[in-house]
Design goal:
The chain is an alpha+beta fold and 208 residues long. The chain is 50% helix and 12% strand. The chain has helices at 2-14, 16-19, 30-62, 122-135, 149-165, 171-176, 190-206, and strands at residues 84-85, 92-97, 100-107, 110-113, 179-182. The protein has a five-stranded antiparallel sheet with strand order 1-2-3-4-5, with helices on one face. It starts with a helix and ends with a helix.
């Protein structure tokens, strides 16, 4: 259930301040701190799932007569975004969403979407990714098959969650405002991205 996934990711992001202090005075190794955060997230999801299941029973009864509770989506097909190339090398593209023009840069096995955080409807993101893959496909992590619009949209959605929850001024928040849909990040969740960031930070600290 998407709600439980968002709860887990929210709890995970609240531990970022602790995780990024891996070299603090408490001398707790980063790996142990990461495991503690993972345990906290797991416990939260388990608890939330019980609460959600109970709430669902009451919700189904209360909303049985409601005609529709689905969110309103702006897109119906990939053609709705009017994606088009803006350079001779077939690398720079633009598309339209909600009356705004977005830039999309294609490099081998990577789509870079500028200001991707502004598009937050998951179903619309899937359709946009369908349009992107129709222009240029991106290899999967195995470099044999190709990524689907759905798993690209999942990665995009992870970036959106990170952007919405990280504090202003955070370098991580700044990097989360855009998304790179490449082969390396297929099927990664927010926890994986945090580990990647920590690995980068630890490596930099070891160099000095």
């Amino acid at each position: 259930m998407r709600l439980l996934k968002i709860i887990a990711e929210a709890v995970l992001l609240t531990t970022l301040a602790v995780l990024t202090a891996g070299c603090s005075d408490n001398n707790v190794p980063v790996n142990e701190m990461v495991q503690t955060a993972y345990t906290t997230v797991t416990a939260t999801v388990t608890s939330a799932s019980v609460t959600t299941e109970t709430a669902t029973v009451h919700t189904e009864v209360a909303t049985s007569d409601v005609t529709s509770t689905e969110a309103y989506h702006l897109l119906r097909s990939p053609e709705d975004i009017f994606i088009h190339c803006t350079d001779e090398e077939a690398q720079k593209y633009e598309f339209v969403y909600d009356s705004m023009v977005f830039s999309a840069l294609y490099e081998p096995d990577n789509w870079h979407i500028k200001d991707s955080y502004l598009i937050d409807d998951y179903d619309d993101i899937v359709i946009i990714c369908q349009a992107l893959t129709a222009v240029h496909k991106v290899h999967s992590a195995d470099m044999q098959s190709y990524r689907t619009a759905e798993d690209m949209a999942n990665e995009w959605y992870q970036h959106n969650i990170a952007y919405s929850l990280l504090p202003e001024g955070s370098s991580w928040k700044n990097s989360a405002r855009d998304v790179d849909l490449d082969a390396n990040d297929q099927n990664k969740n927010l926890f994986d991205f945090v580990l990647d960031k920590l690995d980068i930070n630890v490596t930099k600290q070891e160099q000095y």
